[in-house]
Each structure stands twice: as C-alpha cells, then as structure tokens.
Fold:
Amino acid sequence: MTLPFLLEIGTEEIPDWMIPGALESLHLLFEKTGVPHETVKLDATPRRLVLRADGLPLRLPDREERVQGPARSAPAKAVEGFARKQGVLPEDLIVEVTAKGEYYCFVRKVPGRSSKEILAEALPGLILAIYFPKTMYWTGKGGPRFIRPIRWIVALLGEEIIPFELAGVHSGALTAVGIDAPMPEGTFYLWAHRPAVDGWELARELAERAGLLVSPGEFYGSEGSGHVRVALVQPDDAIERVVARLKAS
Structure:
C-alpha cells in the first residue's frame, strides 16, 4: 500500500525571483528524508510553496545495521567492551573480512518506522532549512528564521494529518480542501475565504454534507464579507474526519 503526500507552506508574500530556488531546495531536502516515493511535483504562488509526492509506503521495511568493532587480533578486553556497548555477549559477534583485515562486527536489527512518524520528525527542520538569500525573524530575535512569516502549514499523508508544530503554527489540512485560511494567532476562531457563493447557502451545505458548522462572515459585519468563521474547538482526529467528509463531498 502506498500513499500520496502533500506539504504546503503558507507565508506572507515571497519575492517571485526567490521562488524557483526555494522549490529546488525544498525538493532536495525532501529527498534527504529517506522516505521512498515514486514521483514529486512542485508548485508555488507568492504565498505558497507546495510539494506533492506519490507512492510513499505506509511503513519502511526493517533493516540491518552493521557496527564494526575491534580487529580480530585485539585484546579480549577490547572485544568484551565492544560487545557490552552493543548490549550483547562476545559470542554474539561475527568476524568479517575487510580490505584492512578481519574485524569483529555486530549486526543490529533496526525496526522500520512509519512514513508518518519520519515526516513528522523531519518536516519542521526541513522547512526552516529551505534556502533563501535572505531570511527574517518573525517570532522575536533568537527564534526561527524564514523568508517571510509562516502563517499556515498543510501536511497530509493520504487522508491523515502529519502532526507537528513550527513557531506556534500547527500543521493541518484545511487548504487541501480549498479553504484558504491562515491559522489564527491568539484565538480559536479561524476566518476562511469562501468561494463566490452566498454565505448562508454555503453554511447550510457544509452542515448537511460534512457536519461542519460555520458562520457566514456577513453576520459579523461588512468586513466579514467573503469569509466564513470556524471555531477550532474539536480534537485533531475530529477535524481530520470533517476534512475527509469535505473531500468526499
């Protein structure tokens, strides 16, 4: 079983001449995660960097890791010390012939990890490592640096959110279903741009089709026109189920 992967980094406006280099850097950094995949596609707008990949495995296979120890001619104490460091007995070691001679070696079984776990661990550092000629602080001096403040992150493996946090921004899935909504700072209310349809009609459709309750922006005055308001008051797994229903509808 393989899965598609989507990473979208939403920012304030990036100078257009910096975008090609940033996408190339993003691609190279993704390759370094070590997660197998079949294809990669990159896209961007001035406020988004997007990487899509297909064919990611649900879980990486178990593997063997060889740890080379002292030479076969080494004193017994050295061999015992190497074995103890590996958590085994000297008789569990094997002897391998190399270009430099015979050496004790321990073959360690390394369980495979899920792609979701690997990406959740790697993505915060990967995002901050994207190369830009200039970067800035946006959470205060000593905090993370990026070309512009990061306002939202979409990270999906199949239907599941890859959970992580970067400078107070939590990964999610909203723009994956067409909701352009930078994550709020200091409140649980999210203001999402809506399609060019009647706000009350959209609210009714979302409630009926996906069980998602939103408030038309016009209810809060003229400045809310073109938006709907969502209260982020449910657990992540409940939000994931709503996103799945939205995609299905």
